Amino acid sequence: MSAVLSVMKELEPEYIKIRRYLHQHPELSYNEVNTTEFIKQELTKYGIEVFNNGKFTGVIGVLNGSAPGKTIALRADIDALPVKENTGLEFASVNEGCCHACGHDLHMTTLLAAARLLSKYRHRLQGTVKFFFQPAEEKLGGSETIINNGFLEDVDAIFGIHTWPDVPGGSIGIKKGPMMAGSDSFKITITAPGGHAAHPHKTPDPIAAAAYMITQLQTIVARELNPLDSAVITVGKMTAGTAANIIPSEVVLEGSMRYLLPETRKKIHESIKRIAEGTAISLRVHAETEIISGCGPVIGTDELVNMVELSADKLLGTDKISILPAASMGSEDFSAYLAEKPGAFFRIGTGTDNPNSHLALHNGKLLFSEDAIAAGAVTLCGVAFLFTGSDFSALE
Predict the structure, then answer these.
(1) φ/ψ (deg, to 5) at 194
(2) What is the chain's Cα-based Rg?
(3) Cβ atoms 368, 99 nearer than 8 A
(4) pTM > 0.85: yes or no
(5) CA–CA separation, 387 vs 71, rounded Å?
(6) DSSP letter string over 306-359?
(7) What is the pLDDT of residues 52-89, one digit of tens each?
């Protein structure tokens, strides 16, 4: 067992208690007031300088090593989901209709533990470590608050973590290239004069046009994109009509798109507009298409992904590393940091023998292995030492 893992094992019971407290008291995006205050208090205990995230929730911690050097940022998100918890745990959420079904409670705890470890090894650390406890990841915009408040400007590289049910607890998962999908949304407003259902010849039908558009939009992935370039287009909402015997004057389609490559994103945007306009012309209605930008794909720097692998290999053991077979089509606003700085994103495994630990993220019955805390914290600690050129042997 590595030296730093041994230290972490001694601290583990304390951090399991912290995780359970955070799990029991979840808060929704941009309302993480008590969570922010709790994190501030913990960081202050470790002798880490604390900064407010401007007018937003969230907090930034700064730890200066014993010598100047590079600056690395480590990030965890802190918000919960508007989901009812059905785990039956003794420490289940006390906030009705709100729970940490995406594992952000483990993210926070893991980063707090990493901050504690790095503070203990401060005398062997060069450079500066920033700890980003970011609000509102579930809204895919909280990262922008950290960036806009200037905390990323002097950072040389950034690393992030996320729970993953398909990786065993106590292990980490890595992948080079695209790791998570970019996500945008779209809104197509179809209009026509409207009229009586008994006289369809007197007005174009926007519902019929919408139905054609929905089916035609699926041909973008099936017939316009390279089969090797993963993408998803979903029409998730259709607003239309007031009565069975009225042809409405307006139909609104709303949907989302997921993609792994920036060039795929551009192609999808162009194709959605073309199909909406072309279908509208052919069926004599009018269509307005709005593309709403979300976040880009998570694509780490290979060299920094290798650094995560090396840290885990040396400090946890080779058997604690899982190479992820494919990217996730889920999205993460960690991508906003990667648009500005090099970085890497990796999984902390939360799977156990319990089938409920392998449910999809955002499921109110999902269980998480708390072994993820130590594995993630130790790996992050090692990454900070490797990236800043500190004496890594102090951790082994």
Answers:
(1) 85, 160
(2) 24
(3) no
(4) yes
(5) 9
(6) HHHHHHHHHHT-GGGEEE-SS-BSS--TTHHHHTTS-EEEEEEEEE-SSGGGGS
(7) 999 999 999 999 999 999 999 999 999 999 999 999 99
